[in-house]
Amino acid sequence: xxxxxxxxxxxxxxxxxxxxxxxxxxxxxxxxxxxxxxxxxxxxxxxxxxxxxxxxxxxxxxxxxxxxxxxxxxxxxxxxxxxxxxxxxxxxxxxxxxxxxxxxxxxxxxxxxxxxxxxxxxxxxxxxxxxxxxxxxxxxxxxxxxxxxxxxxxxxxxxxxxxxxxxxxxxxxxxxxxxxxxxxxxxxxxxxxxxxxxxxxxxxxxxxxxxxxxxxxxxxxxxxxxxxxxxxxxxxxxxxxxxxxxxxxxxxxxxxxxxxxxxxxxxxxxxxxxxxxxxxxxxxxxxxxxxxxxxxxxxxxxxxxxxxxxxxxxxxxxxxxxxxxxxxxxxxxxxxxxxxxxxxxxxxxxxxxxxxxxxxxxx
Length: 363
Ligand code: SF4
Prior knowledge:
- The protein contains 15 helices and nine strands.
- The chain is an alpha/beta fold.
- It has a single domain (52-351), classed as Aldolase class I (TIM Barrel, Alpha-Beta Barrel).
- Strands 1, 2, 3, 4, 5, 6, 7, 8 and 9 form a nine-stranded parallel sheet that branches.
- Strand 6 (253-258), helix 11 and strand 7 form a beta-alpha-beta unit.
- The N and C termini lie far apart (42 Å).
- The model has no long low-confidence stretch (mean pLDDT 94).
């Protein structure tokens, strides 16, 4: 347990609306009890949200290509170009997946592929333009991750602002902060040297916001990252948000999730939900400038909903994600079951519509 004096000092700081320092975050991680972390996380959560109320989304992750040249050692999903089981899905295949979720009342799709050297900007403009034309305002979609956007710009030999402009004209409104994993160059050098430096990642996030797209922040824990590397990540994101709030409100949300160690080069042991929940609380306490902190049903299942008591206020119910499923994630597709977990934790749940035309929820 954290010493009473140190804990009280941090608690007072938070109750006065101040932020904690990196050193205090480190102290809390090493010393605070679970109860203390929950209390502090809820002090910050209460600045932005009703207590005991959560929002959720019904979402499908659409993996349109598994071909990737980045070769991250923690990835169980990618296939190198020319691999017999590499694929690029057809538009019909993608439309079918969208139609299925729309029929259930879902309205959010997240496209996630790899660094596929065959797919240049024209491919994405055509794909997303067709999706926007077909579904108009009934759905919304995260077109890609930040690192995919940067790769597309490079492989298409155009600038990042030009890439953003073309995507926007095709109907893209959102990307996600995926590809962040741990924002510490030491970590990236060890595991994903092709996946861009921290500076490249953050510069691209800035250009995305300046270009008028919405974006989010993410983090993945449970590889072999050190506490310092985790804190580097939190500091980078908080500082970025301080500097970019004027661009459309900055990063829309922050979602931490956990690494799944199966079927890849890195392997390792999966961290437990206890560590995830403590980390989630620390994120809420640290981020006084990000309103929406999300908990990961995709990687934590029922435990993710306990995360609502550790500072999270939002979650999605994912219908499918080949990337994490290949690495060992088991997805609970029954919406009522997942909502039941949240209700059992004492929370009400309200659907957070993302599309401009509201989907008719069937749940
Ligand atoms: S994590 Fe993404 S960028 Fe890295 S190898 Fe897998 S698909 Fe490629």
